[in-house]
Amino acid sequence: MEVKIGSTKLILTIGDITESETESIVNAANSTCMGGAGVDGAIHSKGGPQILQECIKIRKTLYPDGLPPGEAVITTGGNLKAKYVIHTVGPICNGPLTKHQKQILKNAYQNSLKLALEKNIKSISFPSISTGAYRCDVKVASKIALKAVIDFLKQNPNKLDLVAFVLFTPEIYQVYKTSLEEILNANIND
Ligand code: AR6
Predict the structure, then answer these.
(1) Ligand 1 mean position, distance from CA 33 (Å)
(2) Has this prediction a pTM greater than 0.85?
(3) If you measure from the C-alpha of residue 38 to the centroid of ligand 1, how many angstroms do you get, rounded to a whole number?
(4) What confidence tens digit (pLDDT) does each residue in 49-93 have?
(5) CA 165, CA 128: separation in Å to the nearest integer?
(6) Whole domain around residue 45: which residue ranges?
(7) What is the 3-state secondary structure (H, E, C) of 7-47?
(8) CATH number at residue 32
(9) C-beta separation of 135 from 172 below 8 A
């Protein structure tokens, strides 16, 4: 599915984010920034050791106590097709998302986009942050993710060419597609 938000293309696609050809991809990391499973594991294993080396440096200099949930940092993409990896940390869920968890998730998307603009990056791919190991409800998370991106693009027009959500399974894709349709219909009826 593809829509336009101002001059920016917003795409939903099924796939593996490590194969993404956008200039940057976002990692659903944890506060250690030292790697893990899921998207994080795939990015570090395909991207190679340079990504971890830069993460270690960031931990030593900027975030000695760990990357706080909702914040974002940037490293090289190493051997990936993407030139940059933006690492962010979503909320950990143990049930329905609380107001605070929703805010953290929104921050994770918007701080990643902010960092992309600071680096003059034109295209970015997101995974479905916090809906794997961090167990947040996909339907709720998808609405927050899409709204966060759409609001950001409306507030920062003509900066990014492409924002893609690269969703790992057809089921997750379908949830995001329905959410996007609902958000766009709600906007029309505003
Ligand atoms: N490409 C796109 N999406 C993927 C890929 C991939 N290669 N692999 C998994 N997904 P998760 P989280 C989907 O667990 O919930 C890590 O251990 C997956 O199906 O990667 O934010 C970190 O180190 C799900 O929909 O991230 C943290 O400790 C989504 O990506 C923790 O997991 C997110 O799943 C972060 O948990």
Answers:
(1) 14
(2) yes
(3) 4
(4) 999 999 999 999 999 999 999 999 999 999 999 999 999 999 999
(5) 7
(6) 2-189
(7) CEEEEEEECCHHHCCCCEEEEEECCCCCCCCHHHHHHHHHH
(8) 3.40.220.10
(9) no
